[in-house]
Amino acid sequence: MSGLLEVKNLSVSFDTPQGEVEAVRNVSFTLLPGEVLAVVGESGCGKSVLCKSIMKLLPATARIKSGSIRVNGADITGYGEREMQKLRGRLFSMVFQDPMTSLNPTMSVGAQIGEAVRLHQPRIPREIVHDRVRELMELTGIDRPEERMRQYPYHFSGGMRQRSVMAIALAGNPQILFADEPTTALDVTIQEQILTLFREIQKKLGTATVFVSHDLGVVARAADRVAVMYAGKIVEIGTVAEIFRDPKHPYTWGLMQALPAFSKGKEALRTIPGMPPTLLHPPKGDAFACRNAHALAIDYEEEPPMFRVSDTHYAATWLLDERAPKNIPWTDAGEGGQPDLILSNHPLAREHLHTKSGNAGGKNRMSEGAERYGGDTGTEDTERYGGDTGTEDAEPVLLDVQHLTHAFPLTKKVMVKAVDDVSFQIRKGEIFGLVGESGSGKSTVARCIMNIYKPNDGHPPNRNSRSRKRGFEDKDNADDLYGGSRILYKGIDTCNLAIFRKNRRMLQTTRQIVFQDSNSSLNQRMKVCDIITEPLRIQHITPPRGSLRAEAEFQMHYVGLDAEYLDKYPAELSGGQRQRVAIARALTMEPELLVADEPIASLDVSIQAQIVNLFRHLQREHGFSFLFIAHDLAMVEFLCDRVGVMYQGRLVETGKTQEVFANPRHEYTKTLLSAIPEYGFSL
Fold first, then answer.
1. Cα(509)–Cα(499) distance, rounded to whole angstroms?
2. Structural contact between residues 603 and 579, judged by C-beta atoms closer than 8 angstroms
């Protein structure tokens, strides 16, 4: 069968003031009609750039350096913008990673989907456009389409916005769909719906999909073949069964071992030591050599070719060379996440092999040792954090949420309840997980806790009321305005404006939030260094490490980024890198309470493991408390002491994590847990 899309030896570079950045290097692959090709790898490895280069959506500073792109046999490598506009939407379309920046905040969601429909069918009657919009919204899992199409993007949760973007992408019935992290903001049940949608589209329209994802569970369920990218290159490609059950590249196995499934019963998740190399000056030889505990001498001198494993399975590693050891026991890897090999007497072996701890080519706080980042701290910590005694017997309440209610105005007289009578507590040094489907109210709870939203009673406000005129300086007025909602932090009623003002500095420094959408939470006109240290400047706090730059560099290492990113702008970073910058900014204030709203959703599995290990370290060593909002139930199970399950704005089940996951009582909780993905390999 001939390929619908054929990419051969494609190289894409960016021209920057520092020099040429080789974002994509000599990439080749074929996409068959109706096939789903998943592209995985760490942030910054070139996955998104690869997709955008095919659709010619690159910025002016980027250029296709070499190679060819053929679609339906036609070479489109040299096509200009006018020619590409005729292909986009009809021949191929794209679902971008960040749904908020893909949607116009001034237009209703229905109008934006309808605009895409009319663009491809300009003479279609208005009534048919309306029906088509409703059909697309239903197809992508948006409930109550007649009501939802009149709402704006800010009314939608992250998952709902992503589904809206998918509806726009499907409006032209494209032959090829580029899906860049389409399930990042979605909960497990909606993920399954979206994956089912992809499969239905394949059967109905024969649409081929290039599926970029960090979620290996989604990849295992959705893809036919998998391409693993590292440092701008495809280092391994094969069928799903071949990649998940018989990985041949050490990088692929490192990604697999970073999954929580491999670390059950352990204090820390396994990570890949170090960070991907900068593509401003790609290293000589194998780019993964400095992170490979069993790299060979030739890895530092020559770039490995693609070795054939089978007709469908290829990997670029010198360990597959005929002179390399045979029968490499990947599935019998040691505790450090790498196979136990003795290569010192081998003709390709280096003089001094890396030890199991690895040499990442630079100091990395994420890999300094288990004793610092989630290692065994002894019986005392075990009892304190999730042992038989539990935190409730040891620590005072830090955050007390009482009967929290919040509604958004749909019209002047109609309110939509997002949170309905939610109550829970977070004790000092505790990680409380909040899970549930998109739109269940999790992010609204987080914003109310941080005083971004004000609680209300769910009824349209009476602008002439006494409490509205006078504010909420006393308890009675607060009850009137907020319907009995209380949010107590260290015993302080943060809903009371007068009290909040008296404690403003303490509340703004000891509480921090990491938003789900890292792109919109970062100032695009500021460099990373200034973004991270901005809280210190606002609060006039002297940097603990002497200077603002030294503080920013310390926090960057803390979240697994090189100091070279300090002088970059957010637009120059990948989605995962931007999220880590947002986390670093929050950690700069060394808060007692960190509200983390989907902090790892846009991160690859290896970086997820690093961040989760960091959170565990901050909890155990510094007494940090967390409200951890996530769709990844496996991570919640591994990290959190207690968990709360939200459904349609209400907290339907709460308890110790182990008890809830082992013996769920609510039917909705059972449904969520049943959707946890299986990876197709045995542990």
1. 16
2. yes
Q: What is the CATH number of domain 380-674?
A: 3.40.50.300
Instruction: Answer for the pair 574, 48: CB distance below 8 angstroms, yes or no.
Output: yes
**Helix H or strand E segment including 23:** strand 19-31
- With tokens 């013996």, the residue in question is 663
Tokens found for residue 573 = 């970073």
Helix (H, G, I), strand (E, B) or coil at 170: coil
Cβ contact 672:633 at 8 Å: yes
What is 124-168 written as a DSSP string? Answer: --HHHHHHHHHHHHHHTT-SSHHHHTTS-GGGS-HHHHHHHHHHH
DSSP 617: H
* Ranges of H-type helices in 472-623: 475-482, 497-502, 504-510, 518-521, 528-538, 548-558, 575-588, 605-622
User: DSSP E strands: which ranges in 284-443?
Assistant: 307-308, 314-315, 397-409, 415-427, 431-436
Strands, sheet with 642-647, edge to edge from the N-terminal-most edge strand:
511-514, 593-597, 625-629, 431-436, 642-647, 650-656
d(CA 597, CA 127): 39
The number of beta carbons lying within 10 Å of the beta carbon of residue 543 is 16
Q: What is the torsion angle, in degrees rounded to the nearest 10, for the CA atoms of residue 592, residue 598, residue 599 and residue 602?
A: 180
Select from 47, 50, 40, 42 the least CA-distant residue to 5.
50
Q: Within 13 A of 578's CA, how many CA atoms are on the CB side?
A: 22
371-380 contact pairs (CB < 8 A, 24+): 372/617, 372/621, 373/268, 373/613, 373/614, 373/616, 373/617, 374/267, 374/268, 374/269, 374/613, 374/616, 374/617, 374/620, 375/267, 375/268, 376/267, 377/267, 377/620
Count Cβ atoms below 10 Å from residue 414 Cβ, excluding itself: 11
How far apart, in whole angstroms, are the C-alpha atoms of residue 315 and residue 305? 8
3-state secondary structure of 374: coil
Look at the block and give the residue holding tokens 């300086």.
Answer: 473
Q: Which DSSP category does 88 fall into?
A: B
307 contact partners, CB below 8 Å, separation of at least 6: 248, 314, 315, 316, 317, 320, 321
Tell me whether residue 57 is exposed, middle or buried, using C-beta atoms within 10 angstroms of its C-beta: 0 to 12, 13 to 18, 19 or more: middle
Tell me the backbone φ, ψ of residue 190, rounded to 5 degrees.
-70, -35
Tens-digit pLDDT profile for residues 157-180: 767 887 888 889 888 888 899 988
Tokens representing residue 627 in the block: 């409200």
The two three-digit tokens of residue 661, written as one number: 């996951």
- Vertex 527 angle, CA 372 and 505, to 5°: 65
- Domain parsing of the chain, residue ranges: 102-173, 380-674
Q: How far apart are CA 16 and CA 34, in angstroms?
A: 38
Average pLDDT value over all residues in the chain: 82
- Percent of the chain, pLDDT > 70? 83
CA dist 352 and 160 (Å) reads 52
pLDDT band at 327 (very low <50, low <70, confident <90, very high): low
Structure tokens at 176: 């090829």
Cα torsion 570, 571, 576, 581 to 10°: value is 0
pLDDT tens string 66-110? 999 999 989 999 999 999 988 988 888 988 877 777 899 999 999
> Assign residue 458 a region: left if phi > 0, alpha if psi is -120 to 50, beta otherwise?
left
Statement: the pTM of the whole predicted model exceeds 0.85:
no
89 phi-psi bin (left φ>0, alpha ψ -120 to 50, beta other)? left
